[in-house]
Amino acid sequence: MTAVIEVHNLTKRYKDKNALDNVSLAIEGGAIYGLLGRNGAGKTTLMSILTAQNFESAGTVKVFGEHPYENSSVLNRICFVRESQKYPDDATPRHAFKAASLFFKNWDQELAEELIKDFQLPMKQTIKKLSRGQLSAVGVIIGLASRADITFFDEPYLGLDAVARQIFYDRLLDDYAEHPRTIILSSHLIDEVSNLIEHVIVIDNGQILMNEDTDAVRDRAVTVIGDSAKVDAWVAEREVLHRESLGRVASVTVLGTLSADERAEVTASGLDLAPVSLQQLIVRLTQKASAENSSENSSENQEVR
Amino acid sequence: MIEEGKALFIQIAEQIEDSILDGSLVEETKAPSTNELAAFYRINPATAAKGVAMLTDKGVLYKQRGIGMFVAAGAHELLLSERRSAFADRYIDPLLAEARTLGLGPEDLTALLRERAAAASAITEGNPA
Question: Does residue B107 sit in helix, strand or coil?
Answer without folding.
Answer: helix
